[in-house]
Each structure stands twice: as structure tokens, then as C-alpha cells.
Design brief:
Blueprint (H helix, E strand, L loop, with lengths): L1 E8 L6 H14 L4 E5 L9 H4 L4 H9 L4 E3 L2 H4 L3 H10 L4 E2 L3 E3 L8 E2 L1 E6 L2 E8 L6 H5 L1 E3 L2 H11 L6 E6 L3 H4 L2 H4 L5 E4 L10 E3 L2 E4 L7 E10 L2 E11 L7 H18 L2 E4 L13 H14 L3 E5 L10 E3 H7 L6 E7 H10 L3 H4 L16 E4 L1 E5 L4 E6 L2 E2 L5 E7 H4 L10 E6 L4 H8 L3 H6 L5 E3 L8
Parallel strand pairs: 1-2, 2-3, 3-4, 4-6, 8-10, 10-11, 11-13, 17-24, 21-26
Antiparallel strand pairs: 1-14, 5-9, 7-8, 12-13, 14-15, 16-18, 17-20, 19-24, 19-25, 21-22, 22-23
Helix pairs in contact: 1-10, 3-10, 11-16, 12-16
Length: 465
């Protein structure tokens, strides 16, 4: 008969101030029977510490608290396959995913399909599943297999080598529950991805499941007894980190890595020929530049982007630090096809200041407001309230005609402007919108073109402007 305590986190999303509190809880609760695990999305590249260290700041934090394994969530993928390989290759604990491969279907360097952890003579098979990213796969340079088949394969491959099986699952609690029936060999599931908080573990078909919410706001605890391969749950809970003191070791590492990151990211990329100011409601050159860059990068009829993608303008010179500050959302350049009537509907909504100032909350969005739509390759005639005509390549936009649109995945999903969700044949690039600024702000013709307004207002219908 053996004891095992599992301390676990998931979906921290680089909320490192909270993680400093979780670290204190881990140090308080760990003992000689403890293993420490993370269910994925620990490393969110909104963090300047991660941007400036290629993700190593996250590895150092987990290593400092002696984590034993991590499964790869979608956010560990979002900075590209090269960064993921760099992080996994430098990690002293295993990065685990049984269903994640490179786009060419070869294995990712440094990533393990499973690992066997020996704790006081107890052999624990740990495998982990990553979420399928759908149309994003190509842009991110990844290929995903069926996670259920991958789990079964790992269990068979390690048959006779382990005593209990633990799954780190970043596919969501609803997807995990059927696994308790379909794969009874799984003894424990640490769930993640959908940010569910269990007050205590669930036992479903003899499989123990727990999930610790998100953002480092809780620590999950499982206390188990193992007798001849049978796993019994003795105690479980998820503890709030709200009123806990921050761990000084973590704070020190954060300070050091932030200083490193600022030094690296603060190096000037190039001086700007002219400033690119920004506004949430008024047409502005920074957002026009992004629309022009997207149209050129994706070779579409129209470029379309919302001004809320940025928080401020850029002046004098550009650096990677400034790009993160100005455009923190890890959204991707996205092309799709759309009929003219839906484009016009969204443009007309964009004349309403209340819509522009609406809360921009949505997947991947790190700004505050939705903002006004900006276009490239098009001109818009309006009276301040209603759009009277839209011209694409000097021809009137036709309601039923399909146009290719270069935008972001945020707008492609219909966030902020619902009519834009009526699209087809979407394609994503691995770059982020801030990369569009970096590439095109140094091109004189794009810099000058950004100052040319595309929205033309006239006071009366039919008035010549």
C-alpha cells in the first residue's frame, strides 16, 4: 500500500503574480509523496517575460517549484513550432503530448508522448493530450492526431512498465468524461482547457478527475492510496490563492527575467519615417497601415481590421517591446471569402460610436474596445450614420459577389461585428498582427499610404465630395 499526493495547476496563462501565490501553497502542501503537474496553457506569450526569453522564463518558474511534468496546451503552441521546440528542449521536466506533431507528421524535438515517473517505487505512466486547433494547424506548423487513439496507443506501448496511469488532458472536461468509459485503464485525469473549477475531485466510472480553474487562482490537490494497482481517493480539494503571500523566489525570477526581456525587446528595430498615431473611433494611420499590410501579405481584394487591435500609436522608432505594448493581442492574419452585403453591414455598424466602444473581449483579444473598422483596397461613402456606397478597385461593392478579405481571426469569428462571421474558406498565418506592423511600418510607400483616408463623409446623399 502506497500514498501519493498530486498538486496540480492548469490554464495559468502567464498570470505569474497569481502563480507566485500558488508557489507558496505548493511549498506548504508538498511532502515526500508529492508529484507536481501542470495541465497546459501555463505559458501564454502575452507575457513580456516569455517574449523576451523565447519562453524560458516559464520553464524557470516551473523548475523552481520542482514540477514533474507539463502537457502542451494551445498557448504553448501559439508562438510557433520553433519556440515550442526551444522550450521543450531546455526543460528539465518533460513536455508531454501524445497527439501533437510537426506539419510534416514528424515528431517535435523535445516533446514526449508519455513519461514514466517513479515516486518512492510507484511507477506512474503520465501521458498528455493537446487540443486540436482546426484550421489553425497549418498556420502554426502542426499536425494533430486523434487524442483518444493516441492515449490507447501509449497505454499499450507501456504495458507492464507502470502501476497506475495518469492523463494530463488539455481537451476539456466534457471530452474527458467519456474517456472514463472508453479507456478504463486511465486511473486519474487532470483536466484543462475549458477552465473548469472543481471544488473537489469527481470519481466517474472509477476514474478520478480534477480541474483547478484558471489564471493561477487555485491549486488542485489529490491525496490517493494505491494498493496493487487499485487507486483510492482519500481527499481532494482546490485551494484559492487569493489571500496567499507571494513566494519571494518566484518574484525574484520574474524580476530578473523581466529585466532580461526588456533589454532584448527594447533594442530599436528601426526609426520611423513618420509617426503612426492611433484612435479607437477616428480613422487613423496605424490601423490603416495594418489593413494595407494584411491586404498585401495575404493578397486579397480587401484588407479589414478593427482599431481596437491596438492600444496606442507608435512614434520615432519601433522596437519589439513597443509592438507588444501597442498590439498585445496574439491574433493571426487571416484570409477568407465573404459576400459584399455582409462587409457593408459591418462597415455601417462601424459608424456607431457605441459599437466601436463596446467591450472587445474575445478569444485572443487583449485590447479594451472593439474599435472602428479600417479598410484597404476600398473606399466608403457615408453621411455619418449610413453607408451609401463602397468601392472596391473603383467598382461598386455588390451584395451577392464574393470578395477575398484579409483580416484577423478575431473578426473572422464575428467578434465585435457579427455579420463578418458569414465567411468561407478561411486560412490562417502563424504570424501575429503586430508582425504586420513590424514588416510594413518600415516601407515608405505603406507609411505614406496609411495617411490617405478611405472613409469619405458628405452631408447630403448625392453630394459630390
Amino acid at each position: 500500500m502506497m500514498r501519493l499526493k498530486i498538486l496540480h495547476t492548469n490554464d495559468v496563462h502567464s498570470n505569474f503574480e497569481n502563480f507566485a501565490k500558488v508557489a507558496t501553497l505548493i511549498k506548504q502542501h508538498k511532502d515526500e509523496d508529492t508529484i507536481i503537474l501542470d495541465g497546459g496553457d501555463f505559458a501564454d506569450f502575452k507575457s513580456i517575460e516569455l517574449q523576451g526569453t523565447r519562453g524560458l522564463a516559464a520553464i524557470e518558474l516551473l523548475e523552481a517549484i520542482s514540477y514533474d511534468a507539463l502537457t502542451i496546451g494551445n498557448n504553448e503552441m501559439f508562438n510557433g513550432i520553433e519556440t515550442l521546440e526551444y522550450m521543450a528542449g531546455k526543460s528539465p521536466f518533460p513536455f508531454i503530448s501524445n497527439n501533437l506533431y510537426k506539419k510534416n507528421k514528424t515528431e517535435i524535438n523535445g516533446v514526449f508522448k508519455s513519461a514514466i515517473l517513479n515516486k518512492n517505487g510507484l511507477r506512474i505512466l503520465i501521458t498528455g493530450s493537446s487540443p486540436h486547433m482546426g484550421e489553425f494547424n497549418d498556420g502554426l506548423g502542426i499536425y494533430m492526431t486523434d487524442y483518444k487513439e493516441a492515449i490507447i496507443e501509449e497505454i499499450k506501448r507501456n504495458e507492464g512498465k507502470y502501476d497506475i496511469c495518469l492523463l494530463l488532458s488539455h481537451v476539456g472536461t466534457l471530452a474527458d468524461e467519456p474517456l472514463t468509459i472508453d479507456i478504463p485503464e486511465i486511473d486519474i485525469i487532470i483536466s484543462a482547457h475549458d477552465h473548469k473549477l472543481f471544488n473537489e475531485a469527481k470519481v466517474i466510472n472509477n476514474t478520478i478527475m480534477n480541474s483547478a480553474g484558471n489564471y493561477g487562482e487555485h491549486l488542485g490537490i489529490l491525496e490517493l492510496e494505491i494498493n496493487e494497482g487499485e487507486v483510492k481517493l482519500l481527499h481532494s480539494t482546490t485551494i484559492s490563492s487569493m489571500d496567499v503571500e507571494k513566494d519571494e523566489q518566484i518574484l525574484s525570477l520574474l524580476k530578473i527575467n523581466k529585466e532580461k526581456a526588456i533589454e532584448v525587446l527594447g533594442q530599436p528595430l528601426y526609426p520611423l519615417a513618420q509617426s503612426l498615431w492611433h484612435d479607437v473611433i477616428e480613422e487613423n494611420p496605424l490601423t490603416n497601415l495594418i489593413a494595407d499590410g494584411l491586404k498585401d501579405m495575404l493578397n486579397c481584394d480587401i484588407g479589414l481590421i478593427n482599431s481596437g487591435i491596438c492600444n496606442a500609436g507608435v512614434f520615432n522608432e519601433l522596437s519589439n517591446k513597443k509592438l507588444i505594448e501597442v498590439c498585445p493581442s496574439p491574433l493571426n492574419p487571416t484570409s477568407f471569402e465573404m459576400q459584399g452585403k455582409y462587409i457593408k453591414q459591418a462597415l455601417e455598424q462601424s459608424l456607431d460610436a457605441q459599437i466601436c466602444l463596446a467591450d472587445g473581449r474575445g478569444p485572443g483579444f487583449r485590447g479594451r474596445f472593439v474599435g472602428r473598422l479600417h479598410v484597404s483596397g476600398a473606399k466608403i461613402e457615408h453621411d455619418g450614420k449610413k453607408v451609401h456606397a463602397v468601392y472596391v478597385n473603383e467598382r461598386v461593392l455588390e451584395d451577392e459577389t464574393w470578395y477575398t478579405v484579409a483580416s484577423s481571426d478575431y473578426l473572422q469569428r464575428g467578434s465585435g461585428y457579427e455579420s463578418l462571421a458569414n465567411n468561407r474558406n478561411e486560412k490562417y498565418l502563424a504570424e501575429e498582427i503586430k508582425d504586420v506592423i513590424r514588416v510594413y511600418a518600415n516601407k515608405p510607400e505603406f507609411n505614406e499610404q496609411a495617411y490617405i483616408n478611405r472613409w469619405k463623409e458628405f452631408s447630403k446623399v448625392g453630394e459630390v465630395y
